[in-house]
UniProtKB/TrEMBL annotation:
This is NB-ARC domain-containing protein. Residues 97-161, 163-236 form the NB-ARC domain. Pfam families: NB-ARC. The keyword tRNA processing does not apply. Transmembrane segments: none annotated. GO terms for biological process: defense response.
Amino acid sequence: MSTLLAEIRELAYDVENVVETFLVKASSSPGKIIQWMKKRKFSRKIEDINRKMCLVFNQFDDCNMKSKSDSSHGTPGRLRRFHTFTTVEPKIFVGHEADVDHLVGLLVDESDRCYPLISICGMGGLGKTTLAQKIYNHSTINRHFSGSAWVTISQKWQTKEQKQKCFIVLDDIWSTDAWDSLKAAFTAERSVSKLMLTSRNVDVAEYVNPKGLIHQPETLSPDQSWELLQLKALPTRGEYIATGFQKLTKLALKCLFRLQSWRVERGSMPVLSELAIYACDSMKELPQGLAYLNSLRKLNLTGMPPEFCDRVGVVNGEPGPDFYKIAHVPEIITKL
C-alpha cells in the first residue's frame, strides 16, 4: 500500500508540472497555445501520464480497493447515487484532537440549532485538510451518515434522494466563483445532509452560508511543532518516512529549548533552500544530513550558544568540526 501511495504522489507531481508548464506557455504566448500543445514533447508527457494512471488504476483492482455502498435499499439493478469513498486518514496527527471531537459533535447534531455548514478556515499549512480527513474517517461520522463523499460531486441531487443523510467534504475552496460552479448540487434548504469545506479565505465560507459555523484552528505550539517535525521527518521506532517534505523550501526551528539533536535523512527535503535556527539552547551540533542538502542556499543561526557557533564556523583560520556539513552553503549568517 505504501508503494502505491508513493506512485500516486509521484503521478500528482507529474500532472502538476505539466499544468504549470502549460500555464506559463499560455500566459507568455497566448496566440500559440494550440501549436505548442501539438508538439511531440508535450504529447509524450500526456501519454506518459495516461500510461501511469492506467497502471495505478490496475493496482487498485489488485489491492481490492473499491467504493463501499449499502445495496440493501433502493431499486434493484439501479446504480445508487451515494457511495462512501475512502480518503486516506492521516497517520500523523498532532495538536488538534479537541477540534476533532468538537466538530464531530456538531456534525452529528440534529437539533434545530445545528449548523448546515461547517467551514475550517486558516492560512496554508495550518492543517485544515488533515483535520477534515480525520473527521471524515471518524467512526462516529461513519455510523451517523448513510454515505459520504470527499470533494467529487458528479451529478446534481434529486428531490427524492435528498432525504438520505450524507456527509460531503469540499476541500480547499479558494474563491466564491468555485462555489458558484458547485452550488446547484446543494439546492435543498432543509437537507438532512451535512457539508464541510476547507478554505484559506473566511469570506468564501461566509458567502457559501452566512449561518454556518466557521472554525479556525489555532497554530501549533513550539513543542507540538517539533513533535510533528519529528514524526514526519525523523525516524520513529526504527522506521523512516522516505517522502519527508518534498516541496518544503524554507524551514525555521525557533525556541525549541529542549532540542538536543535532530536528523535529516537523505532525500527528505530535496528542495530546501533556506534554513534558520533560532535560540535552540540545548542543540549540540548540526545534523550530518545537512551535507546532503545540495539545494540549501542560506543558513541563519541566531541566538545559538557560542560553543555551537564555534563548531560550525571558522575560528583562527581553522574550520570547526561541523563546518564540513554546511561548507556548500553560499550564505551563512551567525548572530550570537
